[in-house]
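PROTEIN–LIGAND DATA SHEET

This sheet pairs a single protein chain with one bound small molecule, NAP, given as SMILES. Inputs appear in the order they were entered. The predicted three-dimensional arrangement of chain and ligand is reported afterwards as a token string under its own label.
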Amino acid sequence: MTTYLITGASRGMGRALALELMRDAGVRVLGVARNKVALRKLEELAGSETYPGVFIAGNFDLTELDEDIFQDWLRPYLPLTGLVNNAGLLINEPFDSMDERKWKEIFEINLFTPVKLCKLLQNSFVRGGHIVNIGSMGGFQGSSKYNGLAAYSASKAALTGFSECLAEEWRNKGVGVNCLAMGAVQTEMLETAFPGYEAPINDEEAADFLKWFLTKGKRFFNGKVLPVALQNP
Ligand SMILES: NC(=O)c1ccc[n+]([C@@H]2O[C@H](COP(=O)([O-])OP(=O)(O)OC[C@H]3O[C@@H](n4cnc5c(N)ncnc54)[C@H](OP(=O)(O)O)[C@@H]3O)[C@@H](O)[C@H]2O)c1
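PREDICTION REPORTED AS:
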């Protein structure tokens, strides 16, 4: 069975990607998030005519992870063919007022969680495995920058640098690492941060592309930071 671990599977792009992958029988999605009810809904959909794949719920707060419990949960489903570090946090607040606690909160989930998972899973991938880190155009060098997003954009910029470096460190393992710098996608995160803004694509359209990239992109890209945006820059 082909197994993918997706963080942030309870809503938005992570949920949509989980469902896209579950369209294939023979695929098992390990979906991690804090919202137990949302994960249970995915479990209920799995194995249906539309979604013949398997969904395994991992109800964890990734910023307060008990690594032993997490490893025990994961072990029966290893090895992984892919990992999508998708869980993220955006707080839109001017630099002058945002306190250090919020900076740390954002970096904890957007940067240190992917770092922690890659470290924990260093021997858990098939040869030919693929890690996709979900970055943002906000963290893409040379893109337009926006007020209120200093911490978020800095965390995503750090994730791009980490992705490029890990691809090199793991070249001999045969595990590819890429980072997708996503432009705006209509999700709860976007709606909360920028009420009224209409993104050019929704989470299902994004998931369609993410599925292709996760399952096929490793043949074409490694150590790359790819802007996935219709504009900017
Ligand atoms: N939407 C956009 O326009 C856009 C643009 C560029 C990049 N991105 C990036 O794309 C990714 C997905 O974004 P989205 O718009 O789909 O966001 P979203 O709708 O807010 O979903 C975020 C997901 O992350 C999970 N999550 C957050 N903190 C977590 C924690 N401590 N432990 C476990 N899971 C946690 C949430 O699940 P629970 O709350 O259930 O834990 C949720 O499933 C993020 O990394 C975001 O920065 C989004």
